Amino acid sequence: MFTGPRGASGSGVVFEGVEQRLCLSSYSWPALGGAAVADFTGDGLPDLFVRGQSGFEIVAAKNDGTFAAPVAVSGYSGGPFAAGNFAGSDENADLLTFVRRKGLVVLPGDGKGGFGAAVTVSGVPKGMITVADVNKDGNSDLLVQTMGRKGEINVLIGKGDGTFAAPLGSAISAPFSTILATGDFDGNGNADILLKGLGWRRGTSLLSGNGDGTFNAATPVTGISGTLLATAKFTATDGNTADQLLLQGKMQWWRIGRGRARMRVPTYVIGTIKSGALSTQNATNVAAWPVAAADFNGDGNADLLIGNRWSGLKVQLGVGDGSFKDPAAITI
């Protein structure tokens, strides 16, 4: 599953390129296979919430691109989750999760690796949840999507106390589609929705946000192909203000040494949506399997989290022009 994120930019704790999702119909794990990227320590930097060797841990980011030693998590007993700013006026990330015999709850983050007493959430319809701040109030909101012929997206505005308002107005019609990503793709400061058609309804469309929780009618976006890995402002140094797409493109054959042996390696591109089409450039020095993008060292450039909990996690610091430094390992 692509990540990205992002998640809604503008929430204060869920970072660009980090798509926070939770499925309430099958209770499957969200993106990253049981991990999240958000500010769990309240210092403005994105931290990692991961499954370590001895359970779930928070790995706090430092402003030099390195990470502190893992801290064991308290107050969380497992289950599907998504991170966001759901409860309280602080900058500590909270968790939206499903607890057996309690249902959907919010666990307020304490900024120290723990979570407070669960706040029961009611009135959320079943479906795939994407976390985004769609009305720019700093609280994370929910986009709840149902699939199939009668597929639709309901918008639930977060109240900031761990609860959510009733679905906003009429649901957004999205038959045979899925939310590909959220982000500010047109650069006007509002969260937008990128929809991908399924089955016979192929193609990608953009629902531009109005900044109040409502969205304009879908408009087609051409040129998007490959696998979406993350969204962020990857080329901020050129004055770009819109979220961009990091895509894995076609595989290429590379020759190994002087012999005849060859290997297939992925190619990566960064895409910007302009006038209903995707404009792309090559992403330079991207290591295998990026899973999220966030500014881990606070320099204003989007960095990459790569790998997984089996092969190990690494971070690649972004230069801001679409290129990245060599990866550095993260201890979990």
Task: Annotate the secondary structure layout.
Layout: E1 21-23, H1 31-34, E2 36-38, E3 47-52, E4 55-59, E5 71-72, E6 81-84, E7 94-99, E8 103-107, E9 119-120, E10 128-132, E11 141-146, E12 152-156, E13 172-173, E14 177-183, E15 192-197, E16 204-207, E17 219-221, E18 227-232, E19 244-255, E20 262-274, E21 277-282, E22 290-294, E23 303-308, E24 312-316, E25 328-330
Antiparallel strand pairs: 1-10, 2-3, 3-4, 4-5, 6-7, 7-8, 8-9, 10-11, 11-12, 12-13, 14-15, 15-16, 16-17, 18-19, 19-20, 20-21, 22-23, 23-24, 24-25
Describe this protein's structure.
The chain is mainly β. It has one helix at residues 31-34; strands at residues 21-23, 36-38, 47-52, 55-59, 71-72, 81-84, 94-99, 103-107, 119-120, 128-132, 141-146, 152-156, 172-173, 177-183, 192-197, 204-207, 219-221, 227-232, 244-255, 262-274, 277-282, 290-294, 303-308, 312-316, 328-330. A 5-stranded antiparallel beta sheet has the order 1-10-11-12-13, with no helix packed on it. It has a 4-stranded antiparallel beta sheet with strand order 2-3-4-5. Strands 6-7-8-9 form a 4-stranded antiparallel beta sheet, with no helix packed on it. A hairpin with a 2-residue loop joins β20 and β21.
